[in-house]
Amino acid sequence: MAVLLLAGIVFTLILIMGQRDLASVVVVRNISHKLKGHSLSTNYWQAGIALFAANAALFALAFVILFFLPYGAVAGLLMCIPLSLFIWVIFAGVWRGSWKDKAKMAFIGSSFFLFFLGWIFWYYATLEPAYPGDDLFMAWIGVIIASIFTLGAMSVSMFVILRKC
Q1: What is the pTM of this model?
Q2: I need a labelling partner for 143 at 20 to 30 A (CA). Which of 27, 118, 122, 158 fits?
Q3: 14 φ, ψ to 5°?
Q4: What is the Cα–Cα distance from 147 to 23, expressed in whole angstroms?
């Protein structure tokens, strides 16, 4: 598990370092060019809600992959992380409003991770032992790991979206 975590962190760092190259890929430029005239490029509420929906869809995809495919964690890391970075780079490239509105859009879109973090804490707070004397230490470890991944995903998304192009 530690090897998978380390591999995911290294893979994410490699993708973040190459995000300027990713922004210049023909596919990203074509999508950005088609969306520039749309209200997603200037209305931070619409762009933030679309980003929120994209984050939720990618989370649902990762959830399905994790539980329904053998070695789903590896497949999820190899597929959902680049897809999410790709979507965040597109939203960063499409934006044509002020930097302050871009920050609002990024916060609205990344608030999915805050809702998920709230659900994690609520789930742990309402968790009851399966039998008398059951130790919930492993559940607490799961909460810590899920919190690290959630805050990491939110900070990476904010970094990618708010970077200077």
Answers
A1: 0.75
A2: 158
A3: -65, -45
A4: 29
